[in-house]
Amino acid sequence: MKISDLRIALYSGNYNFVRDGANQALNRLVDYLLRQGAAVRVYSPTTDTPAFEPTGDLVSVPSVAFPGRGEYRFPTRISGDVRKDLAQFNPNIMQISSPDRVGHKMVSWARRQNIPVLASVHTRFETYPRYYNLAFLEPVIEAILRRLYRRCDALVAPSESMAQVLRDQRMNYDIGIWSRGVDREIFHSGRRDLAWRQSLDIEDDMPVIGFLGRLVMEKGLDVFSDTIDELKRRKVAHKILVIGEGPAQQWFEDRIPGAAFVGFQQGSDLGRAVASMDMLFNPSITETFGNVTLEAMACGLPVVAAKATGSQSLVKNNESGKLVTPGAVREFADALQLYCQNSDLRNAHGSAGEQRAEDYSWDQINNVVAQTYIRLVRQRQAGHGPIQQAAVR
User: Fold this and answer.
1) CA–CA dist 265, 238 (Å, integer)
2) At 323, which CATH number?
3) Are residues 350 and 367 located together in one domain of the fold?
């Protein structure tokens, strides 16, 4: 069986209506599959004002605005039109990337059609409630995720650390790695632009601590701002550069006055902005991979990150950055202070990170997913269903 023999139905809860690392990875995957001759059909909620044009054929799934977070859509059901389209497309494999209500129904549809299902895990949804004073819901969400993922033939996670978390949570027996790539045309140290920094009133010799990502509380904005407060108490010279936008932007601006907020950036402008930092500070624990960490490394920056799934699979502690206990404000401040005050160490660790980023080619990484599709289709054709989940301990 070849990649060109595949007919893939891909379900995503957010394929292109809000831009984030997960949906950009899915669009890159679809681009790769189409270039290899595969047939792909994407099913996702849609809006009239998407963040970017989708790659491939996109079929709209009924949805409503998410309460309190209107920029997101909550998929509600598989409509008759969607079911008809699925039947006409006649996929030989399905991938789901969102563990929501429609994701469950897509798995049920595929099982009735005797079609194997691959689930890709993009974020640690079970950790989100803790940022909204609802931590008691974590075990409930974990149980719901387990029920879904055990009905799939296999899972792919963005990092070995995340795969191990899924194993420990007994989510599935068959768990592989679908890593993430980085566009080296956009992200490299040569993009650094001192004139652009000067336009933001940043002196050439001022250490710049960067934040890159969507401005939502689950990205660790509280830990970030508390750490910057600690640096100020220590009178450590620095400047903050924030790349991104989101519903918590006003809160973040109020917490770190004097920071340069440059909003959403893309393409070469994004590469310039990242390379013009001196270090990335990523305190988030919700990412399963950490695209922003890899992009910063590709630009020659040392990374100070939480020792959690995602970043710890990319950053080598004391070699290309610093890994810190999640939420440990003083430890984060220690690491940032060291880089602010020691440019030689900062440059050495940044160079090590840039070299490490060379290993991440998008086509090579996406081929891993394509080969997983082929394996699962062959297994089903041979009469083998999902590995019995009773084997999961």
Assistant:
1) 22
2) 3.40.50.2000
3) no
